């Protein structure tokens, strides 16, 4: 974490904002190192780099807001992310602290060692004390003490920096959940920079860390984009934007009154490509909508530059028009500087320990052969950019993860040079499918495919619910491997047929008549909570009439899903919706939000984690409070049978054995279709077995794996009780009640 105690504040550096900060010299023992990462000694805290962004209080003089007004240009420059990035870079350049950490290769186990259990927060859903900000609530000492008792070691905040755009002197709101960032400043609706730093300090005091977000693919239309439109210095180099000479403005569509740009249609796209201005059509149009977004290009209105000349630009945006794409290979390298500066600001100024890379698969674009779409996905530049980002973050002592739905092959490829961790889109839909069908065959298939591809399970973030839908795109089976053949359900199927079957099973099992409270979200998946997946599986159709016995059943199944994600290598992540047992909101409660087609709002109900008992609205949230099945965390931790207390026991076993840093070595066939068996080699070298029963019936049978040594004792890691001995066939007998699981140890247990 960043050492804040010795930092100068910006008011003391007004004479030279680029003045480098002093850092302590490396101790003599730091010279006795090798080039192998595993031999790097632990670094003393003062050697973590520190820096500060500019603190600019933005005024709004009543002058013309265009490039001819030097006051306006300077006002924009003082708010720009590129400007802040340059100031931060000068403070860090030439400092010994920038060379104290290995950075060349992803190090998932180092990341897991630092924070193996994450809480994923969502600002609009987090109920705080009256008058308390979201960031202040995440720094609450009582909450961190509760997290510490459970075993949670990190909070992923989600994006909390200012986002949206600028229209003249006025800020415009975010169009994409604050992923259209325009500043390194904290958005006041979430709190203050002091509260952010205090949150990081509270996390560190409890042995935890804070995980922030950066967006390497695009910005919003803030100061940087407005300066780019004005052709100011190297700001146009931040973006994929092309200056169209006035003689060819006839090729461009008119911009509607009140708008600052307009999406071009495919005919205009072709005309501009033929004229040599743009590379034309890309591989796909994300968020395609006729009359709104028909291509990935938009044209600006005429804008005065700083010389008084009118200019019009055409710019690329993979996503919405308010999210201009960053150019990672411009001669100025302005885009790269901006993104690196944003990452460093989070790590060395605010004090976070890790970053999520958003939409990091779309960082390269290149002209293809005539009549072919431009190369815009899977480009080597994206891999190179991700390696640079991951390396820079590791260089200052942090780690990164990507939440990008990729094929198993691509997850393996990115794990070799890019982010340290990847979100587990491999088995997430598969373990839901196992629960819905009481059959683990598809789950076992995905685990084995990942093993065969060389994916280290310890490099994955295994999650319960987050703010998104239950994703079931199954990219591995619908893209690169759609025509490959797989054995499933006694049939030989293509990848496309496998995906179609799994998606159909999930739709049938947890939407429609089975569970009218869960909704489809476009073609991506199902809007639901973890609890509402379980209620569907248990046959509960009326969420308002859940009995006490049904609550206990839901809790037990919820713990089974937690065991699947926690009792394997890698990060285990869960949200406030999980800790509270939240159910979906009713359609009528969020009808206005649903009218735009985004059904995910039903799974984002607000929750009262700490029992503040208020309907306050952090971040201007208008979301209703969700119906919850569990008590508040303080109440749950007083009840040994509660979800949180039982989860804490699971996580203690996980921590004591080092399961998060173990290696998955076998996923054997099972004697009952509802069973899942995972064999792990612990850091100690001892074998550990996770056995789970995804079915609603008692299961008894043999666990067999050639990895099991004969005549060794099988011990229950939760109770210390000997339950069996491995026989000459490398197997042992076990029985499990419905929807339960356990962690077993093979061989003598230390201290037993």
From TrEMBL:
A GO BP entry: carbohydrate metabolic process
Domain Glycosyl hydrolase family 13 catalytic: 150-367
Coiled coil: none
Pfam families: Alpha-amylase (PF00128)
Region (Disordered): 1-35
InterPro entries hit by this protein: GH, GH13_cat_dom, Trehalose_synth
Gene3D superfamilies per record: Glycosidases
PANTHER family on file: ALPHA-AMYLASE FAMILY MEMBER
Protein name: Trehalose synthase
């Amino acid at each position: 974490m960043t050492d804040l105690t010795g930092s100068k504040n910006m008011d003391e550096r007004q004479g030279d904002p680029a003045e480098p900060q002093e850092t302590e010299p490396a101790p003599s023992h730091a010279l006795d190192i090798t080039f192998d990462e595993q031999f790097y000694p632990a670094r003393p805290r003062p050697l973590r780099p520190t820096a500060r962004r500019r603190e600019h209080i933005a005024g709004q003089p009543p002058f013309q807001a265009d490039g001819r007004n030097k006051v306006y240009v300077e006002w924009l420059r003082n708010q720009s992310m590129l400007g802040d990035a340059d100031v931060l870079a000068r403070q860090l350049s030439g400092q010994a602290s920038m060379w104290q950490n290995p950075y060349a290769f992803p190090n998932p186990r180092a990341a897991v060692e630092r924070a193996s259990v994450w809480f994923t927060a969502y600002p609009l859903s987090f109920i705080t004390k009256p008058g308390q900000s979201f960031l202040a609530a995440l720094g609450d000492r009582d909450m961190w003490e509760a997290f510490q008792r459970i075993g949670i070691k990190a909070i992923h905040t989600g994006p909390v920096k200012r986002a949206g755009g600028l229209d003249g002197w006025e800020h415009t709101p975010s169009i994409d959940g604050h992923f259209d960032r325009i500043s390194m400043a904290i958005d006041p609706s979430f709190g203050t920079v002091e509260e952010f730093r205090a949150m990081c300090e509270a996390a560190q005091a409890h042995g935890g860390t804070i995980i922030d977000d950066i967006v390497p693919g695009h910005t919003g239309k803030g100061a940087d984009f407005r300066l780019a439109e004005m052709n100011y210095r190297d700001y146009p180099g931040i973006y994929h934007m092309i200056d169209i000479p006035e003689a060819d403005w006839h090729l461009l569509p008119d911009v509607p009154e009140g708008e600052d740009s307009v999406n071009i249609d495919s005919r205009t796209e072709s005309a501009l490509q033929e004229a040599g201005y743009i590379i034309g059509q890309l591989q796909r149009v994300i968020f395609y909508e006729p009359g709104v977004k028909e291509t990935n290009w938009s044209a600006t209105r005429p804008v005065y530059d700083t010389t008084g000349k009118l200019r019009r630009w055409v710019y690329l945006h993979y996503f919405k028009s308010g999210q201009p794409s960053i150019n990672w290979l411009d001669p100025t390298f302005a885009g790269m500087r901006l993104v690196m500066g944003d990452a460093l600001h989070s790590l060395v100024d605010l004090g976070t320990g890790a970053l999520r890379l958003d939409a990091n698969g779309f960082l390269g674009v290149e002209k293809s052969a005539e009549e072919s779409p431009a190369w815009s996905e899977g480009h080597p530049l994206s891999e190179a950019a991700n390696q640079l980002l991951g390396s820079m973050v590791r260089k200052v002592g942090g780690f990164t993860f990507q939440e990008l739905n990729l094929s198993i092959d691509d997850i393996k490829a990115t794990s070799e040079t890019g982010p340290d961790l990847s979100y587990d889109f491999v088995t997430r839909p598969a373990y839901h499918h196992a629960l819905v069908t009481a059959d683990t065959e598809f789950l076992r298939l995905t685990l084995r495919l990942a093993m065969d591809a060389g994916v280290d399970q310890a490099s994955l973030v295994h999650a319960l619910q987050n703010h998104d839908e239950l994703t079931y795109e199954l990219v591995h089976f619908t893209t690169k491997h759609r025509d490959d053949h797989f054995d499933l359900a006694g049939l030989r199927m293509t990848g496309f047929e496998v995906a179609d079957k799994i998606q159909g099973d999930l739709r049938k099992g947890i939407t429609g008549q089975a569970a009218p409270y869960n909704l489809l979200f476009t073609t991506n998946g199902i809007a639901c909570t973890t609890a509402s997946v379980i209620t569907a599986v248990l046959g509960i159709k009326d969420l308002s009439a859940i009995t006490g016995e049904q609550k206990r059943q839901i809790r037990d199944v919820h713990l089974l899903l937690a065991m699947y994600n926690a009792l394997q290598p890698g990060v285990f992540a869960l949200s406030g919706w999980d800790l509270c047992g939240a159910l979906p909101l009713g359609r009528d409660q969020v009808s206005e939000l649903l009218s735009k087609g985004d059904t995910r709002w039903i799974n984002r109900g607000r929750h009262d984690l700490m029992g503040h008992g208020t309907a306050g609205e952090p971040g201007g949230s208008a979301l209703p409070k969700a119906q919850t099945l569990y008590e508040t965390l303080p109440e749950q931790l007083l009840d040994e049978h509660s979800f949180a207390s039982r989860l804490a026991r699971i996580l203690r076993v996980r921590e004591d054995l080092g399961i998060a840093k173990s290696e998955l070595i076998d996923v054997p066939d099972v004697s009952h279709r509802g069973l899942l068996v995972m064999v792990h080699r612990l850091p100690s070298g001892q074998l550990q077995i996770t056995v789970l029963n995804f079915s609603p019936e008692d299961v008894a049978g043999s666990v067999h794996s050639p990895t099991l040594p004969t005549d060794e004792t099988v011990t229950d890691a939760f109770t210390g009780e000997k339950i069996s001995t491995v026989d000459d066939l490398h197997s042992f007998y076990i029985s499990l009640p419905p929807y339960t699981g356990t962690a077993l140890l093979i061989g003598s247990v230390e201290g037993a």
